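Structure in, sequence out. Go:
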């Protein structure tokens, strides 16, 4: 079953304990980000100490409700322009309560190389994220099978990744 509109938004409003994502692509082609990416290319940066938007406010709500939201993004260096742009937002998102982790597979095998992007809600529901090669989203699909492999993918991703803030400190070294 494809998921869109209100049914998609309800997943983030109604989860009970955890919403978690695996991101595998070096770039996502999101039309709503086009203007921000142009400003990023022109050298404009946000101030992570003061940045706030609907997403950060929702993260704070999630934390107040005692829930968790997190992700692991699988990357290789050099980081794509999109990842450098996205990382600019990861810091205020982490400070607002999202557990963001990075799994850098530049110099090692990727144990999740055959796994596509997905969201998992409460370790009981999985939504597969389908993308074109350029990162344009095609669809979201509710996975109808046993979620056990996805719980294992999450376990591997968490074990093989580092917290975002730790990862970016390593980039500066």
């Amino acid at each position: 079953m494809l998921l869109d509109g209100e049914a998609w938004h309800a997943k983030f409003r109604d989860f009970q304990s955890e919403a978690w994502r695996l991101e595998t692509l070096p770039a996502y082609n999101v039309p709503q980000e086009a203007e921000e990416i142009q400003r990023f290319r022109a050298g404009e940066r946000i101030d992570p100490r003061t940045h706030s938007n609907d997403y950060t406010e929702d993260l704070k709500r999630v934390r107040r409700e005692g829930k968790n939201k997190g992700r692991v993004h699988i990357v290789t260096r050099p980081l794509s322009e999109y990842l450098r742009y996205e990382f600019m937002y990861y810091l205020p998102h982490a400070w607002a309560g999202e557990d963001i982790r990075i799994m850098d597979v530049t110099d090692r095998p990727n144990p999740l190389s055959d796994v596509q992007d997905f969201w998992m809600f409460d370790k009981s529901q999985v939504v597969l994220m389908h993308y074109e090669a350029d990162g344009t989203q095609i669809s979201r699909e509710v996975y109808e099978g046993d979620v056990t492999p996805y719980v294992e993918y999450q376990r591997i991703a968490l074990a093989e990744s580092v917290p975002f803030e730790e990862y970016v400190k390593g980039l500066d070294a």
